[in-house]
Design brief:
Elements: E1 7-12, H1 16-26, E2 32-38, H2 42-51, E3 55-56, H3 60-64, E4 71-74, H4 81-90, E5 94-97, H5 105-118, E6 122-124, H6 132-145, E7 148-156, H7 181-190, E8 194-203, E9 212-221, E10 224-233, E11 239-246, E12 250-253, E13 266-271, E14 274-279, H8 285-298, H9 303-324
Parallel strand pairs: 1-2, 1-4, 2-3, 4-5, 5-6, 7-10
Antiparallel strand pairs: 7-11, 8-9, 9-10, 11-12, 12-13, 13-14
Helix pairs in contact: 4-5, 5-9
Bound molecules: NADP nicotinamide-adenine-dinucleotide phosphate.
Length: 331
C-alpha cells in the first residue's frame, strides 16, 4: 500500500530548541515534512531555511495563512503561546507547542476548548515521556520495588544567560513554567492515580519571575496516599533525575529529562545488600514524540492530548496558587 502523503509542518520562530533538536528530529520522521520556517526577522528566517533546506515562509501570520501547511511547531517564548496557538488552531492547524503550553490554567483551558472545537491535535513537547528509558524504568519498578512509597523528581540547572526570556515574567518566564513542568510530568508518568498538590513554594525577586521552587504532592492509589516531592529551578546545582522508593528497593536515574541520542542513561537499583548500575536504552525522544504526534494527527486523536494538557496545567496552577497563598495549604 502506498504511504500516505506526509504531514507538512511549519516552524514558528528560529528558536534554539528548534535548531538544535526538534527540526533535525522532524527531518528524520518519514511521515512528516518540514514545510518551512517563519520568523520575525527575514534575515534570520532565510538563514535558518538555508541551514535546513526548507522555505522561508515570512512572518508568523503568513505561515498560518498557508494552505500547504498542515501543522505548526511552536517554540516561541511561553508567554506568546496562548495568542499564537489560538490563531494556529483557528487557522485549522495541528499544533506541537513547546512547554509550557500556556502561562496560566485559564489560557490552557481556552486553548483546549479551541482544539476541541476545531478537532485539532495540540500536544505539549514533553519529549522525555517518549524516551525508551521510561518504559524500562517502569518495568524495573514493577519487578524490583513493589509498591511505591515515595517518588522524587528534580530538574534544575545553573543560571541562564542574562536576557534569556525565562527571566522575563511578561514573556512567560519563571522556573515553574520552565524546569518545573518536567518533574510534574514525571509524577504523572510514574504515579498512576489522582494527583494533587498539597503544598508548594516559589522563590524569586519581588514582582519578578520565580527562579526556584518545589512542591509536595500526593497520589491517591488503591485507597492509599503516596507522597511525591518535586524541586526545580535555574540557580542551582545541575539535577535531572528521579528517585523511587518502594517496599523492597530504591531506584534512581539521573538523565531522566535530557538524555540525548548519544547518552546511555543509567539506573541505580538498591535492594537489601545489593547496589547495581543498570544501563537503560538509548533513544531520540524528540523523534519518538514527533512519531506520536504524527500518529495522533493521522488517527484524529485530538481528545487524549486535550486531557493531558489540562492535567498538566491544573497541577502547575495548584503549585502557583499554593505557593502564593500558603494558607490554602491542606491540613
Ligand atoms: N522540549 C525541550 O526540550 C525544550 C528545551 C528548551 C526550550 N524549550 C521551550 O522552547 C521554547 C523556546 O525556547 P528556546 O530556548 O529555544 O528560546 P529562544 O532560542 O529564545 O527562541 C525563541 C524564539 O521565539 C521567537 N520570538 C518571538 N517573539 C519573541 C520575543 N519577544 N522574545 C524572544 N523570542 C521571540 C524568536 O524567533 P524569531 O525571531 O525567529 O521569530 C526566537 O528565536 C520555550 O517555550 C521553551 O520552554 C523546550
Amino acid at each position: 500500500m502506498a504511504a500516505p502523503p506526509p504531514i507538512r509542518v511549519g516552524v514558528m520562530g528560529c528558536a534554539r530548541i528548534a535548531r538544535r533538536s526538534v527540526v533535525p528530529a522532524l527531518q528524520a520522521v518519514p511521515g512528516l515534512r518540514l514545510a518551512g520556517v517563519a520568523s520575525r526577522s527575514a534575515d534570520k528566517g532565510r538563514e535558518f531555511a538555508a541551514a535546513f533546506e526548507c522555505a522561508f515562509l515570512g512572518d508568523y501570520a503568513a505561515l498560518l495563512a498557508r494552505d500547504d501547511v498542515d501543522a505548526v511547531y511552536m517554540p516561541l517564548p511561553t508567554g506568546l503561546h496562548a495568542e499564537w496557538a489560538a490563531q494556529a488552531l483557528r487557522a485549522g492547524k495541528h499544533l506541537l507547542v513547546e512547554k509550557s503550553l500556556a502561562g496560566s490554567l485559564a489560557e490552557a483551558e481556552d486553548l483546549v476548548a479551541l482544539a476541541r472545537a476545531n478537532r485539532r491535535v495540540m500536544m505539549e513537547n514533553y519529549m522525555f515521556r517518549y524516551h525508551a528509558q521510561q518504559a524500562a524504568v517502569r518495568k524495573l519498578v514493577r519487578e524490583a520495588l513493589g509498591e511505591i512509597r515515595l517518588f522524587r523528581a528534580t530538574f534544575g540547572f545553573p543560571p541562564l544567560a542574562p536576557g534569556d526570556f525565562r527571566y522575563d515574567k511578561a514573556l512567560g518566564g519563571g522556573a515553574l513554567l520552565d524546569a518545573g513542568g518536567y518533574p510534574l510530568q514525571a509524577c504523572q508518568l510514574f504515579l498512576d492515580g489522582d494527583l494533587r498538590v498539597r503544598s508548594a513554594c516559589l522563590n524569586g525577586p519581588p514582582g519578578g519571575a520565580d527562579l526556584w521552587g518545589g512542591a509536595m504532592l500526593e497520589a491517591e492509589r488503591n485507597g492509599c496516599r503516596v507522597p511525591a516531592q518535586i524541586a526545580f529551578g535555574f540557580d542551582q546545582f545541575y539535577q535531572c533525575g528521579i528517585e523511587i522508593v518502594g517496599q523492597t528497593g530504591r531506584l534512581t536515574t539521573s538523565r531522566t529529562f535530557t538524555a540525548g541520542p548519544d547518552v546511555v542513561p543509567l539506573a541505580v537499583l538498591e535492594t537489601p545488600g545489593r547496589k547495581t548500575e543498570i544501563p537503560l536504552p538509548t533513544d531520540n525522544h524528540f523523534i519518538r514524540l514527533l512519531e506520536a504526534f504524527e500518529r495522533r494527527v493521522r488517527a484524529d486523536e485530538w481528545e487524549a492530548p486535550c486531557e493531558e494538557n489540562l492535567r498538566q496545567a491544573r497541577l502547575q496552577d495548584q503549585v502557583r496558587r499554593l505557593a502564593e497563598n500558603p494558607k490554602e495549604r491542606s491540613p
